[in-house]
Amino acid sequence: MSIKEEVITLAKKAKEAAQIMATLSSKVKDEVLKEMARELVEEGSYLVRENEKDLERAKEMGLSKAMVDRLTLTSSRIKDIARGMEEVSALPDPVGRITSMWRRPNGLIVGRMRIPLGVIGIIYESRPNVTADAAALCLKAGNAVILRGGSEAIFSNLAMTEVLRRVARKYDLPDGALQMVSTTDRAAVYELLQLDDYIDLIIPRGGEELIRAVVRESKIPVIKHYKGVCHIFVDENADCDMAVHICMNAKVQRPGVCNAMETLLVHEKIAPLFLPKVARSLEEAGVKLKGCPLTRQIIPSAEEATEEDWYAEYLDLILAIRVVKDINEAIDHITRYGSNHTEAIITQDYRRAQEFLHRVQSSTVLVNASTRFSDGYELGLGAEIGISTTKLHAYGPMGVEELTTTKFIVYGDGQIRT
Amino acid sequence: MSIKEEVITLAKKAKEAAQIMATLSSKVKDEVLKEMARELVEEGSYLVRENEKDLERAKEMGLSKAMVDRLTLTSSRIKDIARGMEEVSALPDPVGRITSMWRRPNGLIVGRMRIPLGVIGIIYESRPNVTADAAALCLKAGNAVILRGGSEAIFSNLAMTEVLRRVARKYDLPDGALQMVSTTDRAAVYELLQLDDYIDLIIPRGGEELIRAVVRESKIPVIKHYKGVCHIFVDENADCDMAVHICMNAKVQRPGVCNAMETLLVHEKIAPLFLPKVARSLEEAGVKLKGCPLTRQIIPSAEEATEEDWYAEYLDLILAIRVVKDINEAIDHITRYGSNHTEAIITQDYRRAQEFLHRVQSSTVLVNASTRFSDGYELGLGAEIGISTTKLHAYGPMGVEELTTTKFIVYGDGQIRT
Question: How many interface pairs between A and B have CB atoms less than 8 angstroms apart?
């Protein structure tokens, strides 16, 4: 069988399975997920052994320490993955939920009911935990899922999929409910992305390069974000200590993630008071500062920021700082250089807070809180399948509900249209 | 300026305008729409004169009577268009609506707020009323809109856009809020569909050929339906008179539209009683019947239905009929041959009704009502911008709310992530 044929067979099976998955009871889905969690722990030593094959190859290929770390499965990490699956099983089932219902003058009762999207393809890199996390969320929402992990984690991913599929079989789930593309040939991804007759949604998870390649090649709708250039605007009436506290958290707590702050905008009236304080804390934490001319007048240690710095997603202990005249200039900056991911305002001014919330069109907008809260779990969605910075279907962190859509249901008693 | 440059200029202006449109007050938007409605009526004779230029060309080109009819503007049709705009202005404003809000254990208040999609491109054929209808819905939802009508209606569309833009200027709306591509060159459509940096959504309205061409060429997300192969399943416990009544309405009232019935599925137990009755009424109304072998045993006048008939969207007084063993066979038929548009069951059996509603995954599923209700206005959305049979973002008839998305808003008081 050619790669193309193999992928098409997989996709057809998934589409057939989706019909059955859509009407599974919540009880069965939740039991399957709990059993999958148990089996992963049970099979922990097998998973670790398979993972070691990937790790060995990674060392041979000279992968970076950070990459190797992301790739590594330990028994404690497997327990975390299992706990994640149990949490997903405990979430309310979105399928069948009536989101609203109303009566028409002619007596028709019209409602909207949540249904699964159908078949979801997940294309991801290195982290083998995505295999279980993504599968759990897709299954919970009644979808069939096709997984395509990176070649660097192929032994780990195949082993994990094998364990999960064994449980699925035990519960008589259709064979196409959960599948993994077993070949590491890049051509398989291309073939997968052409199958818009079978697959309803593609979610790529990984670096910007992977995501751009998927978007370029896909005939299937893709939900994604390229990058997170997150801003904090410290307004003139900010509580200075709170502002320092939040900025430190947003920049330093985990600089390598998409919801970390990359650019700090400071109202010119508070800059002389606030900037020296925040600079001291940031520099003590090892953050390199880059600033506009006004910033550098106040913080001489800051390097000069160039136009590229305003667009930069450093994912590192580097911060661009700009002093702005007012909220308009702050919002203009965000609109021009931002990535529609996450922005926060720090202010004690009620009207300014509301204005920022309304005018900034990014997918998550916060008042007096760290950008690091832009995350499905932290916002209360129960889990996260990814973050979208395009507005169609889902915008911002996506939970299990975003893996469903709604259909119209209509109860009549003989109505016809006149 | 080349066509490409012209279209890019238009799109850039639209994106800038979208920023301003997103924060317009409901009051201003509603006044603009009402004034637009007034001006269309006021300028009725000008619009009719320009429309006559299109009609003359249409006659020269030998367009069909149906096409010419769709193209024609009369003073009474203009009044209908104006009334439509007034109705849109009276709808509740979706922008800024909080769809839900909750409190996190750490005290963060998290909510979802509706915001406009941004820039919407509408690509349509012949009917000049789409110019005003689509513009009204896009503006109401706070979007900027780029219109691209067919060359056959170019004089009518340009005249109508001119009138609408004059009102927009009077109310200081940004110039890019409402624009029309003025060239009739097909290349302009292609160029428009490449501009995913500026345009958020494309909605094509017209025949299947137009829509397939748009989907093929577009880098921008497209919401569309190709066709409506709508089914009615008459269950064994149906009220026979109600079933005849609904089938007549669904097939005969307006056979040329996408929510008309194309295939009738009949439970074998009710077929001997129901089929002769419905056949008589349908044939009296001039409907040509095609049937499976079992159908033809009961209705000898029916032609033999072929495999292609089950896929057919006749848009005409033709109906395919199939006798099925049970609800499973009916749902299997719908899954295999259907278009995810609209399906109805006629039954007095409570459990059967619920089963059909749950298991059928089409965008509108009805019990004891005509498929003709699958329409934004009839379902209570206030108006309709189109119908989607793909599940992402919107599924089924789309109203003004589907021209928006939601962002997360977060009220904190100094929270950081630990």
Answer: 195
